[in-house]
């Protein structure tokens, strides 16, 4: 994505800088306080936030953008017709299951 936005940049240099940045960020986890940092990232970075993002994504794609448009886009891009199973899952089962999990979370919290 970085090289797509800036085609004049050297791809090798951009890739190297991104790898070095990832390595430096990862070094935090191997320090003596790395377990504490990992616990913070695990507690605040995962879990409920990812669940909410999944709910918003499913609702946006299935109900706001529209399941019919989404499946026609898949047909256009991949030349593969989506079966009734996937339409059922994206349009009904996954939103209902996520809603049930959310209600369970609220009741047991």
General description of the model:
This protein has five helices and no strands. With 109 residues, it is mainly α. Helix 4 (48-78) packs antiparallel against helix 5 (84-108). The two termini are 40 Å apart.
What are the salient characteristics of this protein?
109 residues, 5 helices, mainly alpha, flat, 82% helix, single chain
Q: Give the topology string: H per helix, E per strand.
A: HHHHH
Question: How large is the count of helical segments?
Answer: 5
Largest beta-sheet characterization = none
Mean pLDDT: 91
- Structural class per helix/strand content? mainly alpha
Provide the helix percentage: over 70%
State Rg.
20 Å
> Shape from CA axes?
flat
DSSP strand count: 0
Summarize the structure.
By secondary structure, the protein is mainly alpha-helical. The protein has helices spanning 2-5, 11-27, 34-45, 48-78, 84-108.
Topology:
Blueprint lengths: L1 H4 L5 H17 L6 H12 L2 H31 L5 H25 L1
């Amino acid at each position: 994505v970085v090289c797509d936005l800036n085609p004049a940049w050297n791809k090798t240099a951009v890739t190297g800088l991104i790898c070095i940045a990832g390595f430096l960020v990862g070094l935090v986890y191997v320090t003596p306080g790395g377990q504490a940092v990992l616990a913070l990232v695990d507690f605040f970075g995962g879990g409920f936030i990812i669940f909410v993002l999944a709910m918003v994504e499913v609702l946006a794609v299935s109900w706001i953008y529209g399941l019919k448009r989404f499946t026609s886009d898949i047909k256009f891009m991949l030349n593969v017709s989506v079966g009734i199973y996937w339409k059922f899952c994206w349009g009904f089962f996954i939103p209902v299951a996520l809603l049930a999990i959310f209600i369970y979370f609220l009741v047991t919290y």
